[in-house]
Amino acid sequence: MNLSVEGLSFDYPARSVIKNIRFSISKGDFLAVLGINGAGKSTLLKCINRILKPYAGEVYINDEDCFKLKGRQLAQKIAYVAQSNLSIRIKVLDAVLLGRRPYINWDISNKDLEIAQKALEILGLQEYALRYLDELSGGEQQKVVIARALAQKTQILLLDEPTSSLDLKNQFEVAEIIKKIAEEQHIAAIVSMHDLNLAIRFANKFLLLKDGEVFAAGGIEVITPENIESVYSVRVKIEKFEGIPIVIPIRF
Amino acid sequence: MSKKSVQRADTSYNLMYQRYILKKMYVMVSLFVLLLFACVFAIKAGSTDLNLYNIIKTLLGKGTEVSRLVILRIRLPRVVAAIIAGAGLSVAGCVMQNNLRNPLASPSTLGISNAAAFGANLAIIIFGAGSVQSSRSDAVIINNPYMVTIFALVGAMAATLIIILLTRLRGFSPESMVLAGVALSSLFSAGTMLIQYFAQDVQIAAAVFWTFGDLGRIAWNEIAIMTLLVVLAFVYFLFHRWDYNALDNGEDTTKSLGINIERIRMGGMFVASLITSVTVSFLGIIGFIGLVGPQIMRRTIGGDHRYLIPASALAGSLLLLIADTLARTIVSPVVLPVGAITSFFGAPLFLYLLIRGGRNK
Known about the structure:
- The complex is a heterodimer.
- Chain A is of the alpha/beta class.
- Chain A has helices at about 40-50, 70-75, 90-95, 110-120, 140-150, 170-185, 195-200, 225-230, and strands spanning about 1-10, 15-25, 30-35, 55-60, 65, 80, 155-160, 190, 205-210, 215-220, 235-240, 245-250.
- Chain A is built from 8 helices and 12 strands.
- In chain A, the strands form 3 sheets. Chain A has a 6-stranded mixed sheet with strand order 6-7-8-3-9-10, sandwiched between helices. In chain A, strands 2-1-4-5 form a 4-stranded antiparallel sheet, with helices on one face. A two-stranded antiparallel ribbon of chain A has the order 11-12.
- Chain B has a single domain (about 10-360), classed as ABC transporter involved in vitamin B12 uptake, BtuC, CATH 1.10.3470.
- Chain B contains 14 helices and 2 strands.
- In chain B, α3 (about 65-100) runs parallel beside α8 (about 220-240).
- The longest helix of chain B has about 40 residues, at about 5-45.
- Chains A and B meet through α2, β6 and α3 of A and α1, α9 and α10 of B.
């Protein structure tokens, strides 16, 4: 499976948000989308599955033009986890079952139930299945939402800052889970992130956005002090600790 | 873990989910049984005393002249109207609360009730469809009920279309829709006030009487129209129950699940408005059912629209039937306006649920 984004552009009436974005990834990839606030990370994610309608550009999955698909068909190929999710009073299993919506005609089948349960298992949430969503902690709720996206059985998973509101432990857990899902379920994950060190640790591909355009894209080799300074306007040093590169800000 | 124990875990897990769903079913079955009891009581209660045997005989077509008249012409239409209108208003409220993302939304939120009242006032006062006569039961007589109903319906549909056009052409958000509804509401009540200002007191009495909401004025053919509409709407709403659940999770998530939000919202608002328009036109303004019916059930069985929609329908039917029966019997032979009774008893009940909910949290 190969996803290629070609020339994606979107603008709000007052300003252009993303311009001519191009990249491609394959199954098993964990692509970290990096850039400052307002660089267009969220917009890019929303344009890929047409939550926002880009004025130019195409998205192909295995040479199939995604924008020619109907909403339902697209939702069977690309799942999305929003930046902030509402804490509502619904059972965790029912929240995950919602991921089956693109497949449901009148009612859920046993197969849907099985897939939802499997998704809960992959995230280690079996015990929470019959708890109310709004009674869980922020980290657990985030995992439930990822389980819902997983139950959608798609080839692409878009996650908009899934770790931003979490504590250190949950940030690692969620990032680890995304990496695991990408590798084991053969899904390509596109994740917008703020924490460079978390991204370096778990992602294998990187897309650096600056002013709505691709500044650099590729493997770990694009994470250089020069690139980071250009994108974030912060001088950094990159040191290795036990073989893992660590980004250390040195001057603002 | 061995394969066997995994399987066993799955079964118990499934069982627990089944049990959880069963619990919701029990609530609905209980509501249904209560509704049946309420029906029997409503048919029995009143100045002409009827026992259960008489009622069954009459329903089977073997009753006396008097019991046939009382049951088939007077009480049964009221009971059926209460069940249908109550269910309709309540599911309309349920869907509006979801579509507008506003727990305060109800069928009258978009100004439909006031628009219908304006239409009725226009018919009664300007076009002379109502007057006061001295009759035994009611002091006020509407000479031309069809004209009043049609005018009310036109008024209500006009309000609906204005909201829908604004939403379509100007891309209104739910918040703007609610605000537009408030504006329309006051526009139509101002219109009503102006008409009434220049009317004679006889006409005002007829117009005010119309707005009270009264289940006694409906005829069988009108019940048939209302039933058909409410049943179709109910099926439509049920068909979209997953979409409404998705909407509770936010707009971006809903879109990402392949759901066309504009279409869902437009459809939901239109169908809910249609139910409200027809109900208000036939029966007058019956407040609170559409707000309180779904809210009570949301607090009892949760926010899952798979169960919330049917449960809201049952709750609405039950509330309106009880309210109407009380309205007829509390100070019999005077029939109190049912719209006042629904609020009078519904509001404390709702407050109680809010207080209880607050304490639990």
